[in-house]
Amino acid sequence: MSENLPADTPTAARALVPAAFGTSTARRGGVVRRLLRNPLGALSAAVLLLIVVAVVLAPLLAPQDPGASSLRDAFAGPSGAHPMGMDSAGRDILSRILHGGRNTLGGALIALGIALALGVPSGLYAGYYGGRFDSAATWAVNLVMSLPAMVVLLASRAILGPNVWVLMIVLGVLAAPSFFRLVRGIVAGVRKELYVDAAKVSGLSDTRIVARHILIVVRGPVIIQVALVAGIAIGLQAGLEFLGVGSGSAPTWGAMLNEAFQNIQRAPLPMLWPGLALGLTNGALVLLAGALRDGLEDRTGHAAKPHRARDRAAAVPSAAADSPAGQRAGLLSVRGLTVAYAQPDGSDKEVVHGVDIDVRAGEIVGLVGESGSGKTQTAFSVLGILPEGGRVSGGSITIKGQEVVGLPERAHRALRGGTVAYVPQEPMSNLDPSFTIGSQLMEPMRHALGISRKEAARRAVDLLRLVEIPDPERVVGLYPHEISGGMAQRVLIAGAMSGDPELLIADEPTTALDVRVQAEILELLRRLQKDRGLGVLLVTHNLGVVADLCDRVAVMNSGRIVETGTTEQVLHAPQDPYTRTLLDAVLDEAPARAPWEPREARSTTA
Ligand SMILES: Nc1ncnc2c1ncn2[C@@H]1O[C@H](COP(=O)(O)OP(=O)(O)OP(=O)(O)O)[C@@H](O)[C@H]1O
């Protein structure tokens, strides 16, 4: 077992992790710094801050009560006591601007709060889980978006009365779809990232995956959207007030515009102040949104994000079940496994048909077969992560004697990342680009084992040393884009080892790597397997890898195991025609192609 992890580490708590899962120390502060370095960003943030502070402190800053009027001073111009002059009722315009801002910005805040509260969680849920909720929510959102906002607001005013706060609540509901669609779209994309799949396989709960991997991706666009929607809410509210739709009882910038407009011939200046307040606030919001977008894009570019090739994530166990029928190996035993997918017409399509596989402690079993033969479906079944619509429709899977078919998700999760670990192909896609290597190793350990940050950091370095990464103290501080593919695969193996597993499921762990690195990774796997007595189920189509590494082989074709046996048996004396075809496809012994010659030379030779 691990020389780096304490032997008393509780099994259920060892849901450590493929490096892929953790997260945490994102580059906090980076966006804010970039925002402030951008002159427009800094200026717009400063203007907004000034406006908000002035409006919040209105009771202290306003020279007089916003409702106090002196008809004698109606339309008086700016003076020392009244820097913005007086309105048609002889009220101090500055005081009304400050107090009016509280109502205008407060109303926008309510609309924004409601839009966020409705749109973001529902978008997260719909994007992450899909299914019926997604369909129903998308339908409702399309319906709301098809309604003309101004007409709905006017109708609401007629029904609910001229209360601007109520109108802002309605506006919040109308704005919620923009957040829903934004968040749903992003989450639906991120959900398919390999590092999210890997996080699931490692045993992290959905809540934790959403909190660590999804929210961080959604955060930036939502912040930008907040700035835009706030501007729209302020504009719409002012527009309603300007049209005289508001209550008129409290000062707002829109109502002040309305009143000034009615007297524009007599005194044009009072139009300027509420117009200026609205223009400055909205302008600052738009510029801020743009600067935020630039800041976030800058950051994304920095932490270059690898992208997925969906449906390749999975580990697959295999094992040539050459043990006598009915006798089951101790570590992983699959018997009569069938996997089916529900079809739109209500029928089931079976894609795996009665697979038997065994993996014993301390042996490496290769699962080979061409693309589409069912290797991934078999592996997903063992890990309990079949995609939506798929289910184990028959058979039995035991891990250390425990039946896992029908196991509750929580129990399955405890098994994954603990007894069973997974090494995926495409190492880069399985690391979250937003977090350092150390963070991705540490966070799951902290979560699963309840250990301190310091202890987790120590273990992360030990794990990197275990997988022979030079200078691990430096590597823990690097981001995925700063390391090579081979090193990323070592990091993933380190993450898999952090749970001190007994069964390792490796899905084409070397396919994405160049030949030299492939050999190094295979050597590493072999060493770990020997040192720790691991059982390994290796999914591969590379018969060279099988010959080099595996004790036994299971050959899969069209959802069935067609041949199993020791590596020597299967490679040197294949019994099944399909196995022979696979071996024939390896052209090692085929005559080498003749070197190219110029056409004339060929004709001369001929
Ligand atoms: N979501 C799905 N719905 C219906 N059928 C599916 C689904 N996913 C996979 N299948 C079917 O299951 C079969 C086996 O797929 P699987 O991914 O296990 O193959 P594989 O051997 O792992 O191939 P590869 O090496 O390309 O990953 C496929 O041929 C496909 O027809």
Automatic annotation (TrEMBL):
Membrane-related topology note: Multi-pass membrane protein; Peripheral membrane protein
Subcellular location, principal: membrane
Naturally occurring in which organism (per UniProt): Streptomyces jeddahensis
GO MF term (any one): ATP hydrolysis activity
The name this protein goes by in its record: Oligopeptide transport ATP-binding protein OppD
Keyword entries, A-Z: ATP-binding, Cell inner membrane, Cell membrane, Membrane, Nucleotide-binding, Translocase, Transmembrane, Transmembrane helix, Transport
Family under the similarity heading: Belongs to the binding-protein-dependent transport system permease family. Belongs to the ABC transporter superfamily.
UniProt record, GO biological process: transmembrane transport
